[in-house]
Specification:
Radius of gyration: 34 Å
CATH topology of the largest domain: STM4215-like
Strand content: over 45%
Oligomer: single chain
Order of helices and strands: HEEEHHEEEEHEEEEEHEEEE
CATH class of the largest domain: Alpha Beta
Distance between the termini: 49 Å
Structural class: mainly beta
Number of helices: 5
Number of domains: 2
Helix content: 10-25%
Mean pLDDT: 76
CATH superfamily of the largest domain: Myoviridae tail sheath stabiliser
Number of strands: 16
Strand order of the largest sheet: 3-4-7-10-9-8
Length: about 300
């Protein structure tokens, strides 16, 4: 697309994985009636998928004859949308640079494009105590955001902070049969992750030598005979400066200096100094002796 070869930075996948990683180590502890003695401890399963999918699976066992630890509690999450965030847009021409393979090439990448990713997180429990215990392991860390440092493009040596904002928390209770028979308690949380999407990484050779030429321009000169008298033509080069890395074999990660070579062309000549206003009105003229070997 747009003249670029195929590229895939796995940006969206990394955002989803980074979000889910926050909730993959939540544990649930069951106590005796005195709420002191621990009976069992296990990690709450985390899966990617829409809430409706898991509600259907749970509804296939209306009597909850399966082990509670297998069916519920459980956590699921899914990405429900993404939108461009113009408030975080940076200068489009900004680029990141990194050293390429074998310290001989340079990798460059234009700045990322800001996108907001919307997530839904659902917690399924059998009783109120389990739900309260899980929620207290989540809510204190979002005030209302929690920042995760992401290494989206490992080869570019750039890490970015991804704030994850908790937007809302709600709970519902699903009943089977009469109102005295609690079947399932649901906690629904919505989040917004302020992340980025990256353009392709391009590889190029390193610049080890630069040349800066000084040109003389007589475009507005009233003394055109000076040009021919001194054998100068329009935009002719009067001096040149070359700058190169020293030593020549230095790479981006090496310690090196710079060597400069100055070259002068021609001899002394009289150059007119003419001042104009923005509407091309002549203000003044003067002549100054400029020696090229002193430039």
């Amino acid at each position: 697309m747009l003249g670029n070869s195929h590229f895939y930075n796995r940006t969206i996948r990394k955002v989803v994985v980074g979000f889910g990683t926050l909730f993959n180590d939540i544990q649930l502890i069951r106590y005796t009636r005195d709420m002191v003695t621990e009976v069992e401890r296990f990690k709450v399963p985390l899966s990617y998928g829409a809430k409706e999918k898991y509600l259907t699976r749970l509804a296939s066992d209306p009597d909850l004859t399966k082990s509670v630890a297998i069916t519920v509690p459980r956590i699921s999450f899914d990405m429900v949308g993404m939108s461009y965030d113009s408030s975080r847009k940076s200068i489009t021409t900004n680029r990141n640079f990194s050293v390429g393979a074998n310290n001989t090439t340079l990798k460059s990448q234009y700045g990322p494009i800001p996108y907001n990713f919307d997530f839904n997180l659902s917690v399924y429990v059998r009783n109120t105590e389990d739900g309260a215990q899980i929620m207290e392991q989540i809510l204190p860390f979002f005030t209302p955001d929690f920042t995760v440092t992401m290494d989206f493009i490992p080869g570019m040596d750039q890490k970015y902070d991804m704030p994850i904002i908790l937007n809302s928390v709600s709970t519902t209770t699903d009943y089977e049969g009469d109102m005295m028979s609690t079947r399932l308690i649901l906690w629904d949380l919505t989040f917004t992750a302020k992340a980025f999407i990256w353009p392709p990484v391009k590889t190029s050779k390193m610049i080890t030598l630069s040349t800066a030429n000084t040109h003389m321009n007589f475009a507005n000169s009233a003394n055109g005979d000076i040009i021919s008298a001194n054998t100068y033509t329009q935009n002719s080069i009067i001096s040149s400066v070359q700058t190169r890395a020293s030593p020549n074999t230095a790479g981006p990660d090496d310690e090196f200096g710079f060597a400069e070579t100055f070259t002068s062309f021609g001899s002394s000549y009289v150059a007119p100094i003419i001042l104009y206003t923005s509407d091309n009105t002549l203000l003044s003229t003067d002549s100054t002796l400029i020696t090229t070997d002193k430039l």
